[in-house]
Amino acid sequence: MYRFEFHLLDKSFDRTKFDCSVPALNAFLATQARQSQSKGFNKTYVAILEGDTGKVVQGYYSISMGQIDLSALPERQRKFLPKHPVPIGRLGRLAVDRLMQGHGLGRELLVNALKRIRDASQTIGAYAVIVDAKDESAKKFYEKYGFITLADDPMSLFLPIESIPES
Amino acid sequence: MSNARKKIDILNMRVEPTQKKLLEKAAEFSGQSISAFVLDHAIQAAHKELDEVRKYSLSLRDAQVFMAALEKPPVANSALKGAFSAYEKKYFKTKR
Predict the structure, then answer these.
(1) Where is average pLDDT lowest: A10-19, A42-51, A67-76, B57-66?
(2) For residue A153, which phi and psi values (nearest 5 degrees)?
(3) Cβ within 8 Å, pair A160-B70
(4) How many CB pairs lie under 8 A apart between chains A and B?
(5) pLDDT tens by residue, A44-86
(6) How far apart are alpha carbons A22 and A134 in whole angstroms?
(7) What pLDDT is recorded for position B3?
(8) Do A64 and B50 touch, CB atoms closer than 8 A?
(9) Could you list the active site residues of A?
(10) Which among A81, A104, A165, B60 could disulfide-bond with B84, CB atoms 3.0 to 4.6 Å apart, if both were Cys?
(11) What is the mean pLDDT of residues A88-112?
(12) A150 near A156, Cβ under 8 Å?
């Protein structure tokens, strides 16, 4: 069984070999991730094999804070939620190198990301995690773990923070 | 909506002659006017930037589903619970 280390992306990691077979996700890691991170838009975390001194990226995810606009909801139905946009954690991307697929790394990245978002929500507040599925198989992945699909935005799924397991 | 007259705004900008030449050349290459070319690419770049700070606007029915889920958060399903406990076991079994 492979063991991984999870780190915040910095320039010391080797991103040149990464190929998850989705061009947009490859390009993000190779050309946008660091810039996007330094601008404060999001944070990218990478997984490498434990002890890999070459620090070759095997998988990654990026997370950020986001907002959900619930103004469609009549006021009396909004209950305990703030009137203004509701803060959420957003899991924008999650990808595994194709040579590493099938070893459970996607699942481990998801757990790592959800723990991080849950911890952040305790200090700065967030009600849910939203994910953007890039394709049908990504969508099935999130559905398997209980994410709820939005009917009118079917590539977006969410999970209440409170539904994230404790451990 | 579809019959409304399109409102047009003007955006002026200064460019260096060499930059303008470059843009002209590229626009010609792609078969567009220079302003169509510049606008096209600028709009793409803008979408790319804003994609990172996307705001989700929920429809009424999605907002209701969202609200209901927050009010009564579903218990994590067995796949998610299993993923968390496998992770804990693998990485934190001896430590912690």
Answers:
(1) A67-76
(2) -150, 65
(3) yes
(4) 124
(5) 999 999 999 999 999 999 999 888 988 888 888 877 777 778 8
(6) 9
(7) 53
(8) no
(9) 142
(10) A165
(11) 96
(12) yes
